[in-house]
């Protein structure tokens, strides 16, 4: 059994810098957090090994990537047994336009973040795909006016 990783202030500083720019060189990261490169690299590798840092990714501008219209979709499913939940989650996760999915306590059962090109593309997706996912009982769409944080 592994112990829970301990994180100190230097680890937090490293994480904060990498959250801002995951492409920082180790030398620049070390300079920003006040370490020399070797111990900084060892800390980053430990944070990765311990599962604190899960990975690195590119952040794509949705508008420039053809997905500038964002909708938050609240979904209630008709049956909440294990098989139905698994079927719904598998099918919803396979929809490329669904960029985030959260199972909720209480109502609704799920929130999905959907990103498409425009309102017409969303309507086609909602009617043709989302409403036909396994056991969907209710689907409420909320258009994002503006992303404030995230």
UniProtKB/TrEMBL annotation:
Residues 7-68 form the HTH asnC-type domain. The keyword Mitochondrion does not apply. CDD domains: HTH_ARSR. Keywords: DNA-binding, Transcription, Transcription regulation. Pfam families: AsnC_trans_reg (PF01037), HTH_24 (PF13412). This is Lrp/AsnC family transcriptional regulator.
